[in-house]
Amino acid sequence: MNVAITDWDGRVSPVFDCASRLLVAEIRDGAVVSRRHERFNPDQSTVLAEQLHRLGIDVLICGAISRTPSLIVEQSGIKLIPFIGGETDAVLEAYARGDRLEPEFLMPGCGRGRQRGNKRACGGKRACTIGNREVSVMPRRDGTGPMGQGPGTGRGLGGCVGGRGRGAGTGQRGQGMGTGRGAGGRGRGNRK
Questions:
Q1: Residues 51 and 41: beta-carbon distance below 8 Å
Q2: What does the pLDDT look like over 145-182, one tens digit per residue?
């Protein structure tokens, strides 16, 4: 099996879309038998799958990746393992041994904070931090609200499961507990 890891100076490149070098390794019987570096251009999305297939890639391990290249990689039959960080050699050795790359090599913030409702992000998990604890399954219209204080007590941005409350999923201000700074997403700061 051939595994490719986006490489940036001996570490997993934090952003696939900006990577220009792959560490390509052949793994047999739980050991790395060969490795080489290859140049590639992820900006050329029309030939991305062709580039990876020409290199004989079966598995691609990378940092953050945009939706378009991730779909191209997955639809071309290459197994994609995104949102991984750390030293490429350590990640490669762990993968070759059959070790899980999560949580040890998970990028900072992935699976530890709010995922903005994207199940595909960070290994297919949806997680949110409430107080100091991580909750991997958000309340599902059960009337508890995001902090256990009842319905309508969230920020009104909703949409985890298609919220029903005022402003849910619309970006409008709700009955949140915040100060209202930045509400509406206009990016103009706190003007007076």
A1: yes
A2: 555 555 566 555 454 444 444 444 444 544 555 555 55
